[in-house]
Amino acid sequence: MATTVVYPCSKINIGLHVLEKRTDGYHNIETLLFPHSLCDILEITDAPDSPEDVRLFIYGNSIPGPVTSNLCVKAYRLLAERHPLSPVDIHLYKQIPSGTGLGGGSSDGAFTLQLLNRHFSLGLTQEALHSFAAQLGSDVPFFIQQPPLLPALATGKGDVLEPFPLNLSPYRVELRFPPLSVSTAEAYANVRPRLQRMALRDLLEQPVDTWKFVVENDFEETVFEKYPLIRQYKQELYREGAVYASMTGSGSAVFGLFRI
Length: 260
Description:
The protein is built from eight helices and eleven strands.
């Protein structure tokens, strides 16, 4: 019985500009996606006697919503529409908390696509995997990379990716987890877009010591209004000596960069 294991990693957003609402209901944004080592554990096992096409078993942190909405299951069924896949069991050990802006669900979906491609010897190209990933969600294509994952500037609705060399080796990244979660849909519904401003790429090319004053996450304004505890966690990172601190994505996790 064939078994394959991978380790879907997380990401942080360094700067996140919400520029304008699109006619399709999404928003145009610009953000730097930076990989982080916090990861889940994902295993796929052949299940020839299973009465279902795919079964998902979740361990560790809980995941809200029905199993059918999980991106691992959606990834399997998306590929199964085009390729003859035999039944599998997916075992997912969640270490990346949901509702924290770390992209755990997107990463799980992307790594499931890549794992199924390898498991069933489908021979899908990176371009094809990117296409499938974009159907699962805006953040998912970032995780379709040959390891190691590299930072990328994301534009459009977050699915247009451009490599962005950024060396943070002089710093350590520390995560903090306020005891609450933030709905991405709610965060987008309340955000106040701003189109006229300096491009994020130009701000990120300035010294890291200046980021505290110029590199913003637009979601913080309204999310902090509703969840002041998240602001307190960010402020605590600065009190601990972070040179830059921010909420990641639409929250609720915050991170700080500390000189090593």
